[in-house]
Specification:
Radius of gyration: 20 Å
Number of domains: 2
Shape: globular
CATH class of the largest domain: Mainly Alpha
Number of strands: 8
CATH topology of the largest domain: Dehydroquinate synthase-like, alpha domain
Bound molecules: 5,6-dihydroxy-NADP, zinc ion
Length: about 375
């Protein structure tokens, strides 16, 4: 096991009716900006719950942060923060709203002229404006981590940012909110969180015995609750396990002391930036080809996964590894997610080369847990995904 440090300061407030506790978590004299997405919270009662809970606290609102939070829209919110002397942010939404608020938390205290530099130059955020979240969609884990992904439509870029200053102060996780989530987004949440675990697990044996068991436990839980939550998102018990699994999948715990991959995400972000494919679906498209292409270096963990998570007992290590890949593909498809790139874009677009070139331009030429996946490999992996 590798050396590590682990600190996660986010206060998680989990359970039914907990949105009413927001005011206890925000300083009484704070000037709050509440931010949300395209309006789902106004249809499912979450808006009323949050605004009622903010009684006695001075707050402004900013709605309209789109899925894959858009830089231009965030700049409008940044102007409101400055104009109204806001000093506390409250994100009410899924990963997109929370990530948008993380960008704003950083940009509000950033001293440079061009906030895009935070993303394009990879500037870490050591200190941000404090913010809390009310999670409305389990998927990304953004509610308990310090990373964010921001999109710029003008240049078709989707870039990551982060730093220790970007952990939410608190996050309210009420599984009742899942009841209104459309099935497509439930499927996305299951596939995204599943892949988060895989990115931190599907590498090589590294002595992380407990980390492996944590990861396998999250994967098994997601597989177990998927049919129930897909059938009825109002099933509170299923939604509760789904929500907590998504948070634990990417709050930093399972990756401590072990190697991580993240190549699927890096390639996937390019597919979203180029074609607008939902984040989770880009991952489902690439998983099979990434693991098949890298079978030699990943087969031991793939076989362990096949055995422990899917109960595959027959065959050689390589056969089990391949069975694990097949089971993963079938799991995504069982959620109604198509796993071939050709289901989303036309091959004649030269997608594989475009993705490889974009990563190369950004200097991302050594992906994967061994740092050996070059743009040439990326091109082959994406081409295999058709
Ligand atoms: O915008 P509204 O109207 O609220 O609708 C949203 C949106 O259209 C809707 N929704 C959310 N909660 C709902 C609801 N509809 C009904 N009832 C509710 N309770 O769902 C749609 C999708 O929301 P979005 O926030 O975009 O989804 P998700 O949580 O999957 O976030 C995706 C974004 O997070 C990034 C992705 O790249 C993508 O930009 N990620 C962030 C990560 C992180 N910060 O750690 C890690 C991930 O790997 C990922 O990259
Ligand atoms: Zn993801």
């Amino acid at each position: 096991m590798n050396n590590f440090q682990f600190r996660n300061p986010t206060n998680i407030i989990f359970g039914k009716g907990q949105i009413s506790k927001i005011a206890d978590e925000i300083p009484k004299d704070a000037k709050v900006l509440m931010l949300y997405g395209g309006g789902s919270i106004k249809k499912n009662g979450i808006y009323e719950q949050v605004t009622a809970a903010l009684k006695g606290i001075s707050f402004e609102e900013f709605g309209g942060i789109p899925a894959n939070p858009e830089y231009e829209v965030l700049l409008e919110a940044l102007a409101v923060i400055k104009e109204k002397n806001i000093d506390f942010l409250l994100a009410v939404g899924g990963g997109s709203v929370i990530d948008g608020v993380k960008f704003l938390s950083s940009a509000a205290l950033y001293e440079g002229d061009e906030p895009w530099d935070i993303l394009s130059k990879g500037i870490r955020t050591e200190k941000g404006m404090p913010f809390g979240t009310v999670l409305t969609l389990p998927a990304t884990g953004s509610e308990m981590n310090s990373g964010a992904v921001v999109t710029r439509a003008e240049t078709k870029e989707k870039l990551v940012m982060g730093g220790p200053g970007l952990f939410p102060v608190f996050s309210i996780l009420d599984p009742s909110v899942v009841a209104s989530v459309p099935q497509r987004q439930i499927a996305n949440g299951l596939a995204d969180s599943f892949t988060h675990v895989l990115e931190q697990y599907m590498t090589y044996p590294a002595g992380g015995l407990l980390q492996d068991r944590f990861s396998e436990g999250i994967l098994q839980t997601l597989i177990e609750v998927a049919p129930a939550v897909m059938k009825d998102p109002a099933d509170y018990e299923a939604a509760a396990s789904f929500m907590w699994s998504c948070t634990l999948a990417l709050n930093g715990l399972i990756q401590k002391g072990v190697p991580t991959d993240w190549a699927i995400h890096m390639m996937g972000h390019e597919l979203t930036a180029l074609y607008g494919i939902d984040h989770a679906r880009t991952l489902a498209i690439l998983t099979d080809s990434h693991y098949t292409y890298n079978l030699e270096t990943k087969k031991e963990k793939l076989a362990q996964y096949a055995e422990r998570v899917w109960g595959v007992t027959e065959g050689t290590t390589e056969e089990k590894a391949k069975a694990g890949i097949q089971k993963t593909k079938e799991f995504f498809e069982s959620l109604g997610i198509k796993t071939n790139l050709s289901d989303y874009t036309d091959e004649s677009e030269g997608t594989a080369q475009k993705v490889a070139n974009r990563l190369k331009e950004r200097g991302m030429t050594k992906l994967g847990e061994h740092g050996t996946i070059t743009p040439t490999d990326v091109e082959k992996i994406v081409a295999m995904a058709y």
